[in-house]
């Protein structure tokens, strides 16, 4: 059995309150990254997982002694300035058996758009009759 190795990161975006955003991100196993947009500090995140697992999608809750799901669209989205769109991408592989990749775009209004690398297989059927999977 092969292991999955993934990497995740976002684009850069402007936040409403820089200190509140940084404090929120300290709750998660992420690395905060910065850049400049029109002379303002823009933020992004990337996974801080040394074993290549990508972003965490759940986190242990000591109070409930169970795992809570993490909705990155909500966690990040609530900090975005109006008009800003965060795009979270992840790519990964299980050896060369399966290659994966997806991206989700979201704003502070809860609107989202998602694409997956495997979407190409349905699109390919529009231009040909022999479409085989890219696995194993």
Total count of domains: 1
Distance between the termini: 12 Å
Would you tell me the overall average pLDDT? 92
Q: Output the strand order for the largest sheet.
A: 1-6-7-8
What does this structure look like?
This protein is mostly beta strands. The protein has one domain. The chain has three helices and eight strands, in the order βαββββαβββα. A hairpin with a 2-residue loop joins strand 2 and strand 3. It is globular, with a radius of gyration of 17 Å.
Give a brief description.
The chain is mainly β and 136 residues long. 15% of the residues lie in helices and 40% in strands.
Which features does this protein show?
mainly beta; two-stranded antiparallel sheet; 8 strands; 40% strand; 136 residues
What is the fold's blueprint, element by element?
Elements lengths: L3 E7 L7 H8 L4 E8 L2 E8 L10 E4 L4 E4 L2 H6 L8 E9 L3 E9 L5 E5 L2 H6 L12
Antiparallel strand pairs: 1-6, 2-3, 4-5, 6-7, 7-8
């Amino acid at each position: 059995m092969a292991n999955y190795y993934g990497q995740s990161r976002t684009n850069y975006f402007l936040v409403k309150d820089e200190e509140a955003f940084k404090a929120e991100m300290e709750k998660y196993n992420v690395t905060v990254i910065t850049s400049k947009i029109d002379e303002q500090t823009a933020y992004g995140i990337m996974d801080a997982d040394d074993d290549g697992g990508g972003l965490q999608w759940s986190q242990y809750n000591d109070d409930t002694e169970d795992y809570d799901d993490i909705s990155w669209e909500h966690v990040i989205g609530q900090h975005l300035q109006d008009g800003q769109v965060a795009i979270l991408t992840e790519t990964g592989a299980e050896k060369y058996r399966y290659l994966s990749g997806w991206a989700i775009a979201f704003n502070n209004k809860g609107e989202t758009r998602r694409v997956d690398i495997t979407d190409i297989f349905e699109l390919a059927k529009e231009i040909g009759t022999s479409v085989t999977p890219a696995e194993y």
